[in-house]
Amino acid sequence: MFKEIEFSEVKENVVDLIAKQWALVTAGDKDGYNTMTVSWGAVGELWGVDTATVYIRPQRYTEQFIEKNDYFTVSFYPAELKNQIHGVCGSKSGRDVDKAKEAGITPVFDEKAPYFEEAKLVLVCRKMAKGKFEPEQFIDKTVDERWYPQKDYHNIYYGAIEKVLVKE
């Protein structure tokens, strides 16, 4: 069971959750959705609202669901589920397997984008803007060399955090 709270009431360090633990970004609906792990992201205030930003490479299957839908979720999980969930959602494509089934997680469709029952924290986000990294934007040229050897630059999705759910 989840309860809704204000983003300012989140007790955990969300930067730590994204960078040092991991999250799932999920988009779609009960007729079709996909999820993927993310460890690059940001949260904060932008354009007068609490915002989550996620970075998705164009070849990722989740990209088409984020493109097609107005909402996405960013969800965080207990550490003891990391290997179980991350091992599937971080290494297999939803084009080839049912990630939720293989990872043993239960999709929930009661919001404007899916999330999973096993989450401890869920951010329900409305897309506000999309950008894209381009090589000429990198002031530090080592970023391009290190992170983009295939030149598959991330799309950047900015989402207004419309709802925050925590596991009771």
Given helix and strand content, the structural type is alpha+beta
What is the residue-averaged pLDDT? 94
> What helical percentage do the residues reach?
10-25%
Beta-strand residue percentage: 35-45%
How many structural domains? 1
CATH topology: Pnp Oxidase, Chain A
What is the second-level CATH architecture? Roll
Taken from the alpha-carbon principal axes, the silhouette is globular
CATH superfamily: Electron Transport, Fmn-binding Protein, Chain A
State Rg: 15 Å
Q: What low-confidence regions span 5 or more consecutive residues with pLDDT below 50?
A: none
Number of helices: 5
The CATH class assignment is Mainly Beta
Secondary-structure element sequence? EHEEEEHEHHEEEHE
Termini separation comes to 6 Å
Largest sheet geometry? 8 strands, antiparallel
Number of strands: 10
Protein name: NADH-FMN oxidoreductase RutF, flavin reductase (DIM6/NTAB) family
Family: Belongs to the flavoredoxin family.
GO molecular function: FMN binding; oxidoreductase activity, acting on the CH-NH group of donors, NAD or NADP as acceptor
Domain Flavin reductase like: 18-166
